[in-house]
Amino acid sequence: MNLRMITASLILLCITIVGCKQQEEKIEIVETQVDIINDEFPEKKQEVKAVLDSLFLSIQNKDIDELLSYHLYSDKFTEFRDGLHRTGSSENEQYERQLINNISSFDYNLGDLKIDVFNDVAVVTFNADFRPTIGEDIVQLWRQGTMVFVKNEGVWRITHEHFSPMNMEEEKNQ
User: Fold this and answer.
1) Which residues does UniProt call coiled coil (predicted)?
2) Does 113 fall in a domain?
3) How far is 37 from 127, CA to CA, in rounded Å?
4) Domain-located, residue 121
5) Which residue of 55, 130, 160, 169 has the fewest C-beta atoms within 10 A of its own C-beta?
6) What does the pLDDT look like over 11-50, one tens digit per residue?
């Protein structure tokens, strides 16, 4: 009788397992393809624009800690400024601190602003009219700017800056 009971239990167990297997749902994971070249990423573009606006507001407010927080300082951080050699994180931080210490106010206009997003990387280009007040003097600086942002841990940070003087005489003649 024990053998019959064991056999019956095994048969019931097999039927239960097979029945459960048949009821399992097939879960299919569909991977969404991201076209980093042709997709516009409008939400991310707005995020980058908001960071850019906050960055320049931190300069106007002379808030060095906030200004520095927009940078992703590492060995991969690079900067070009005014035709000089490439610099890195420490030189950029020193420059930003000097800027904040030397100005009493800062006005600006970003002409021809373009924000191109490649998923978690954004390239921001513009023609800048920077007008810092240093001492009593308002200095007008026309610069072409490029900033590369990387979304790191959910936050957009600058990993590259490039500022070059604009030839305004050429601009007027066109």
Assistant:
1) none
2) yes
3) 23
4) yes
5) 169
6) 766 676 766 555 556 777 877 888 999 999 999 999 999 9
DSSP code of residue 103: -
- The pLDDT tens digits for 84-93 are 999 999 999 9
Contact (Cβ atoms closer than 8 angstroms) between residue 133 and residue 106: yes
Pairing state between β 78-81 and 155-165:
parallel
pLDDT, mean over the chain: 90
| Ramachandran angles phi, psi of 59, nearest 5° | -70, -45
Domain at 48, CATH number: 3.10.450.50
Domain that holds residue 74: 42-166
Burial 56-80 (b: 16+ CB within 10 A, else e): bebbeeeebeebeebbbeeeebbbe
Asked whether the beta carbons of 112 and 126 are under 8 A apart, the reply is yes
In this structure, the chain runs to a length of 174
Alpha-carbon distance values, 122 to 33, 51, 136, 147 (Å):
19, 12, 37, 8
